[in-house]
Amino acid sequence: MADNMDAATVEAEAVDYTIPVTLSASQMQRIASIFEQQAGEYESDQIPVTMIDQVLVEKLGLKLNERQEDIVMQSTQQLESLTFEQFLVVVKAVLGMTTEWGHLETKLKGSVGFETIGEQVQRKLLKRGFEFNVMVVGESGLGKSTLLDTLFNSKVSRRTASEEGGLDPLPQTVGIDSITHVMSENGYRMKLTITDTPGFGDQVDNSGCWQPLHDFIEAQHSAFLDAELAVVRDPNTPDTRVHACLYFIPPTGHSLSPLDAEAMQQLQGVVNIIPVIAKADTFTPEELAHFKQRIRADLEHHKIKTYPEANNGQATHPSVPFAVVGHNYENSAEGERVRYRKTRFGLIDVENKEHSDFVALREMLMMTHLQDLIETTSRVHYENYRRNNLEQPE
Q1: Which of the 8 DSSP states describes residue 193?
Q2: Can you say whether the dihedral through the CA atoms of 100, 105, 106, 112 is positive or negative?
Q3: Are 261 and 272 in contact (CB under 8 A)?
Q4: Residue 309 CB burial class (10 angstroms; 0-12, 13-18, ≥19)
């Protein structure tokens, strides 16, 4: 009797109550038609595994992200071809991970009203605000504080926001210093935390100087995971996870240093890395173009993933690395404030796209990819940490 109860208990625990992807008759018919057409080209009732991605993308109009590609690979790794039933399992697995259903999307005959979700999210943001956490990494003297103040149009860096406003003595080890601001723009509130890394790359022996940065980033993931796993969860738990890492590359004119290459290789798995060439005004336009090309080649050679990710098969985004100039002088022109870099040769308009990638960097960070940086941190980096942590045996 006890054995039967144990078996029944095990069977009950194995029940999966998640809602599977259920397709309509017309959707099933379309998938079956496409499968038959592709299989017919091989005079078979199956299609080769090598054709799966092409069928999903070109025939069904799906857009596969990295996670979906992994699912397809895992589902087909021991197979050479797929029957319709096997193909359908793969299709449902891919559809279950996205709202982009391509040619399988159901067409509306009129307005429903859910298009107002954007306005609802907007009202929620206006009421609650949001958090954005940035880490800056690079050797001393590269203008990190100046660029941060230029980016956020205020004194936000640790050095300029301090009461003294002076330079701190050079640390003997790599430090982690954070400062938090709350700022508002047209009713939207942002809680901005800037994390500086004084001492990075400034020692005689810089081996492993990336480790405190890596540990700090993972500690934020750990704190968020602990809050998530608590029996009574606080809905207002602060999000201290690092959303973006501005990695400053010295303007050497040569190539990526071994230290920078190793540091970015170690950090790319835990944070979104945005490479920045500091003090771009030290180059001529020709020298800068050549240096950017060399850095892109080095990033590709060392298999370093940067943000934003590239498209069309390119290893890096065309704007990476961002060559920037921070301002140290302001003036008014035609009623507008203009920010310059004052040098012995004259003034450099830091927002002139011919002189600097500053505008491109600011637009990417604030205007086009801000939400994606936050989501990528949660969806990719935090999820990887969470999975690896929970899979470890106790």
Answers
A1: E
A2: positive
A3: no
A4: middle
Closest CA to 244 of 135, 361, 319, 322: 135
Report the alpha-carbon distance of residue 31 to residue 21 in Å, rounded. Answer: 14
Mean pLDDT of 290-300: 93
Q: Give the three-class secondary structure for 315.
A: coil
Please provide residue 349's backbone torsions phi and psi, each rounded to the nearest 5 degrees. Answer: -75, 110
Burial letters 60-98, b for 16+ CB under 10 A, else e: bebebeeebeebbeebbeeeebbeeebbbebbebbbeee
Residue-wise pLDDT for 17-41, tens only, equals 445 788 889 999 999 999 999 999 9
Query: 393 — alpha (psi -120 to 50), left (phi > 0) or beta?
Result: beta
Q: DSSP 3-state assignment of 43?
A: coil
CA dihedral (21, 23, 27, 33) in degrees, to 10, reads 80
The β-bridge partners of 274 are 246
Phi, psi of 142 (to 5 degrees): -95, 5
The pTM of the full predicted model, rounded to 2 decimals, is: 0.76
Q: How confident is the model at residue 311 (pLDDT cuts 50, 70, 90)?
A: low
Tokens for 241? 């996870």
Question: 308 preceded by cis ω (within 30°)?
Answer: yes
Q: Is the peptide bond before 321 cis (omega within 30 degrees of 0)?
A: yes
In contact, 136 and 144? CB cutoff 8 Å:
yes
**How far apart are alpha carbons 308 and 369 in whole angstroms?**
8
Query: Measured between alpha carbons, how far is residue 269 from residues 101, 193, 203 in Å?
Result: 29, 21, 25
Q: Which two tokens stand for residue 340?
A: 């310059």
What is the β-pairing status of strands 322-323 and 336-343?
A: unpaired
For the stretch 141-164, pLDDT in tens is: 888 888 898 888 888 877 666 655
CB 55 within 8 A of CB 34: yes
- The share of the chain scoring above pLDDT 70, in percent, equals 82
